[in-house]
Write a structure and sequence with these properties.
Largest sheet: 7 strands, mixed
Number of strands: 13
Distance between the termini: 39 Å
Low-confidence stretches: 1-25
CATH topology of the largest domain: Rossmann fold
Order of helices and strands: HEHEHEHEEHEHEHEHHEHEHEEHHE
CATH superfamily of the largest domain: Response regulator
Oligomer: single chain
CATH class of the largest domain: Alpha Beta
Number of helices: 13
Shape: elongated
């Protein structure tokens, strides 16, 4: 992949480089970045990782260099790309926002340190033996996806009290969500909402999926976070508007292009933590001894303009809890 093109997609300007002293300035560490996203789609909030490293004295062009590999939203490519980074002899590998990339990295190497960002249930999917003592070459950050999606259901119900029948929209090829869908449906029953399942693997599935939602009398959607879905976010948001469906999204990038609302772990916080972990590893720490950190910050974003278009009045109490309101 063209390194300059990838960096351009991240939309990152050049900042004055801080002075780097001591041994750090005498070696260039190579950081492999494994991403499920398209090279044409910015990795959400990745700038926070680079800025976090800069603040810790690790500056691209001075003492660190990045090796990027993008799967172009094709999960089956991740193992091959992870193996390629290992062959490139990177000093540490960062897996971008998601479980599939982290699993591919773990399978590719037992020796290269891996720092994963935003993995759903790191212990449950087998990435580490425990959060406190990972015990291998993988560390990073994690969150309980069931809790996050359950909160998304609650918030959408709060925004649209009349909701009684909604659907989760996910990528069936993403291994994270399949085992937890029953738990999500149980949460729906708890708040008196029937939860159906819909799936999208690519652009050809979009219109038929929304037609299925109409046929099933779905009154709202919860779109689960996934690199494939975010790649087609404009089309998804347009279809939701066309069918006048209130939608809760798992990533704020959907709201930025006109989606109703989103709720997710704070990516900026997770990438800043990842920068700290990478810095510790470059200084000699072992991933086995670096606890996997639980996500504790989340972000609720509401698009009032879209709410008005849908004829919705968002309760003031919910607006008061929002981290950002787009008007």
């Amino acid at each position: 992949m063209n390194r300059r093109a990838f960096l351009g997609t991240l939309g990152l300007g050049l900042l004055p480089a801080p002075r780097v002293a001591g041994a750090q300035s005498r070696k260039t560490f190579r950081i492999g970045v494994l991403s499920p996203y398209s090279s044409a789609t910015p990795a959400p909030s990745f700038h926070a990782f680079r800025e976090g490293l800069r603040e810790l004295g690790y500056v691209e062009g001075q003492n660190i260099a990045f090796e990027y590999r993008s799967a172009e939203e094709k999960y089956e490519r991740l193992p091959e790309l992870a193996a390629d980074l290992v062959r490139s002899k990177v000093d540490v590998m960062l897996t971008v926002w998601g479980t599939p990339a982290a699993l591919a990295a773990k399978k590719a190497t037992t020796t290269v340190p891996v720092v994963c960002v935003g993995v759903a249930d790191a212990v449950g999917v087998g990435l580490v033996t425990s959060l406190a003592r990972p015990g291998g070459n993988v560390t990073g950050s994690t969150f309980h996806a069931e809790e996050m999606v359950g909160k998304q259901l609650q918030l959408l119900k709060e925004a649209v009290p009349r909701l009684s029948r909604l659907a989760t929209l996910s990528n069936p090829d993403n291994p994270v969500y399949v085992p937890m869908l029953k738990d999500i449906e149980a949460e729906g029953r708890r708040i008196n909402v029937q939860v159906l399942r819909l799936g999208i693997r690519g652009p050809d599935d979009m219109e038929p999926t929304f037609q299925s939602a109409k046929k099933e009398r779905v009154e709202g959607l919860v779109v689960l976070r996934d690199p494939v879905l975010i790649a087609y976010r404009n089309r998804l948001v347009d279809l939701a508007a066309k069918h006048r469906l209130p939608v809760m999204y798992g990533m704020r990038e959907f709201v930025d292009v006109g989606g109703l609302m989103s709720f997710e772990p704070s990516l900026v916080d997770l990438y800043q933590r990842a920068a700290q972990l990478v810095a510790k590893i470059l200084k000699g720490a072992k991933p086995a001894d670096l606890p996997v950190e639980r996500s504790i910050k989340s972000e609720l974003v509401i698009n009032l303009k879209t709410a008005k278009t849908l004829g919705l009045t968002i309760p003031s109490a919910l607006l008061g809890r929002a981290d950002q309101v787009i008007e």
